[in-house]
Amino acid sequence: MQQWARIAILGAMFVVAYLLILAWQKDYGNADTQPTPEAAVVTHEVSADLPNGQATAAVPSDVPQANIANQQQATDATAPVSQQLISVKTDLYHLWINPKGGDIVRVELLNHDKNKDSDQPFVLLESDPKRTYVSQSGLIGLNGPDSSRNGRPVYESEKTSYTLATDAKSSEEKDGKTIKVLNIPMVFKTADGIEIIKTFKFTEGDYPVVVTHKIVNRSASNWQGQMFGQIKRDASDDPGKSDQGIFTLGTFLGGAWGDPEDPYNKLKFSNFNDEKLNVDAKGGWVAIVQHYFVSAWVPGQLKLTQGNGQEYTAHLESRKSSDDMNIIGFTSPTINVPAGTVAEVDATFYAGPKIQSELKDLAVGLNQTVDYGWLWPIAKLLFIGLQFFHGIVGNWGWSIILLTILVKLILWPLSAKSYRSMAKMRVIAPEMQRMKEEFGEDRMRFSQEMMALYKREQVNPLSGCLPLLLQMPIFLALYWVLMESVELRHAPWILWIQDLSAMDPYFILPLLMGATMFIQQMLNPQPADPMQAKVFRIMPIIFTVFMLFFPSGLVLYWIVNNSITILQQSLINKSVEKEKANREVAN
């Protein structure tokens, strides 16, 4: 029976290793090993081409197709061509808008550095010869200017540079505070009296941008069209992934979408055509997800001249363009604007870090782009615990240590019973060896005597598996928390650990983890079988090598966990040995 207990413990340990390997392969196995191209410096000259370098002639695979019969083309653009991109700077990002189409062609996140050794902001969206990742929106359909023969409309704005801190002319109340709001209107007019005002609304302290299209129909006929919003990205590498020596780490890179009935779905770039998105949804969203960051469109409301704004049902879709760009977006229902009336249609665009609280408020399921895998309930609780302790100590490393102590305290009663059984196994090991020598040839007699001994000493040989089985889901869940939570990106602890989401550059923590694992094994009863004993002795070495390239925050958790286990097991071992000594004295 003892041999089977050892085999069970070994099996549990290898299950942990196997699940970790699966998690690693899921997140990192398909990572592109090509180096990330350096972002080109944004120029203020507006190219005569679309953001991805295509000519301005209408490209069917770029601008979505309207769902109405195109009986006539939209009125040709008459506005002069602007010479500069429109620069917008808030407290959170620096953003550029191309007047041609009113697309967002570059976003620099000011509160997130390019890497832990750089003071340059992280570039999320960009459009240059090396990389295309842009957000597009406009009006298509029967009279939509984005369906014009002359290509996309060119909007005019008062200025080419805006700063929220100085140019905001309005404010809102939020959580008892007055925050600044910057509205940037861009105007496009046609010769027949149609005026389209495309407004970008930026709010202090918020990443979401509300994009509104106001159609003012001063013509003599009905105007008809649809709003579209889409994200276009090439197949280039994920700049959010990190280089870990011989490993290049990066999590899921691809599309995602959701609605209230089906909150979160992932869609690989390779499946944008074969398993393409093609659904109608109210309260839905579309996004492109990468490590730590996300860009998303959330359809909003439609407001006609008479009546209040109402949430509309949008059509969500994905596709590949003719030049193999990955496009995911939405289109609104057909909007009819009779002569002499006005209509407004809007949507919200998010480009920034995957902050769960903000994404949750934006759309149902969007916060699940912080993908904690199949153990997300445990991972969510661990993250809440980390946030709580971080609010007290202000350091994510110490928060991990405090969280580990809390988890061990919660599991203490269950693990104590198991450790007590293991301690008794250690105490009766000499008796087990004696019985093996006496009844070794008679396996049935040896098994009977061994079971009688277990019953007399109240020992469960399988109980040694329990602590590891309890820790396994917590360990895996914490792995996903460290990998997916942008709050821990480049988070320092002490001394040489300046990024808890990256490996220990000097391998000190993995070596300490291996040492604590070895000490812990020495406190356990040693296997009687020589082969099992050898396997157990090399397990700390195997796990040390295995942990060399894992996040230092995860290794820190395992060190603290092992250290508390050593303390707990030592106390229980002494207690059991004292009980045995007292019984011997009494007898």
Automatic annotation (TrEMBL):
Keywords: Cell membrane, Chaperone, Membrane, Protein transport, Transmembrane, Transmembrane helix, Transport. It comes from the Bacteria. It is a multi-pass membrane protein. It is found in: Cell inner membrane; Cell membrane. Gene3D superfamilies: 2.70.98.90. Residues 136-159 are annotated as: Disordered. Residues 86-383 form the Membrane insertase YidC N-terminal domain. The keyword Transmembrane helix applies. GO terms for molecular function: membrane insertase activity. GO terms for biological process: protein insertion into membrane; protein transport. One of its GO terms (cellular component) is plasma membrane. InterPro entries: Membr_insert_YidC (IPR019998), Membr_insert_YidC_N (IPR028053), YidC/ALB3/OXA1/COX18 (IPR001708), YidC/Oxa/ALB_C (IPR028055), YidC_ALB_C (IPR047196), YidC_periplasmic_sf (IPR038221). Residues 396-574 form the Membrane insertase YidC/Oxa/ALB C-terminal domain. The chain crosses the membrane at residues 7-24, 396-416, 459-482, 535-560. Belongs to the OXA1/ALB3/YidC family. Type 1 subfamily. Required for the insertion and/or proper folding and/or complex formation of integral membrane proteins into the membrane. Involved in integration of membrane proteins that insert both dependently and independently of the Sec translocase complex, as well as at least some lipoproteins. Aids folding of multispanning membrane proteins. Interacts with the Sec translocase complex via SecD. Specifically interacts with transmembrane segments of nascent integral membrane proteins during membrane integration. This is Membrane protein insertase YidC. The lineage of its organism: Bacteria, Pseudomonadati, Pseudomonadota, Gammaproteobacteria, Moraxellales. The gene is yidC.
